[in-house]
Amino acid sequence: MSEIKLSIDYEQYEEGIKMKDLLEELANKPEGAELTSLIIGDWGGSYENDSSEIVETLTRLKDRFPRLRKLFIGDMGFEECEVSWIMQSNLSPIFTAYPELESFTIKGSTGLELEPVKHAKLQELAIICGGLGKHVLAGISQAEFPKLKKLELYLGVDEYGFDGSLSDVLTLIEPGKFPELTYLGLKNSEIEDDIAIALADAPILDQLHTLDLSLGTLTDKGAEALLNSAKVQNLKFLNLSYHYMSDDMMNRWANAGIEVDTSEQQDADDEEDYRYPLLTE
Q1: pLDDT tens, position by position, 130-187
Q2: Count of CA atoms in the C-beta half-sphere (13 A) of 154
């Protein structure tokens, strides 16, 4: 696999170098035709310049990257740009421009739009953010991804963009929605208990090998529903890492007979106001 990461540091940004310049330069090199994985990091002033120019450039240059199968837009650490400050845009044109794309990862949800699209070959979709808007959830749930195997969504908190409810999240797991899905990550959520309770006996569990409810505010309330679910018992792996479960609940999981990650226990304060997902700002 040929993988390249493009990123603009502060000095380059001050010099006026733009990500579209780096993309055009790559497109004119032999490596462009062989590229299978492209990672786009900080595009320079990502907290004030959105990703629309990148989307336009990638769409325009689509024929120059014929083997592109994996794309990550927004791969930057907090020292470059806090996740909630990353300015995204409407990334829907990417799906049309790259019909052979198999994996798409997006970091940052400010300004993010995903219209309902059809893509015959996408297998993985991940959105890493501090808060995911219900309009984005609707765009995903209304999309047609018949080959999608992995869906990983950081749902986050309302202060940083999550303006939906449990019902908005549950539209993603309606029967027949994603027929080949085997990994479902509804993680980093301030309503993790509600999600866990709703998923405990959901039909979608019958097709999953991995359920990922990590990085959120899961407590014994949600864990109890999962522990009592026969469908959960059939999972190959359950990820509950970073949680607010009690020692007693963790011991019960240790004897549950399934592979489950209960690492990174947080202080299980009784006050709900003091429970936070891992990634917010």
Answers
A1: 999 999 999 999 999 999 999 999 999 999 989 999 999 999 999 899 999 999 999 9
A2: 25
Residues listed for the chain: 281
Give the pLDDT band of residue 1 (cuts 50, 70, 90): low
Q: In whole angstroms, give the CA distance from residue 40 to residue 52.
A: 13
Please give the sequence-ordered ranges of beta strands (E in DSSP) within 206-270, or none if there are none: 210-212, 237-239, 260-261
| Alpha-carbon span 93 to 106, nearest angstrom | 14
Give the residue carrying structure tokens 């829907």: 92
Residue 10 is predicted with a pLDDT of 85
d(CA 269, CA 38): 42
Tokens of 150: 């992995």
Which residue is listed with tokens 């940004």? 13
**C-alpha angle 51/52/58, rounded to 5°?**
90
3-class SS of residue 136: helix
d(CA 250, CA 29): 53
Q: What is the pLDDT of residue 264?
A: 97
The rounded distance, in Å, linking the Cα atoms of 152 and 185 is 4
3-class DSSP state of 167: helix
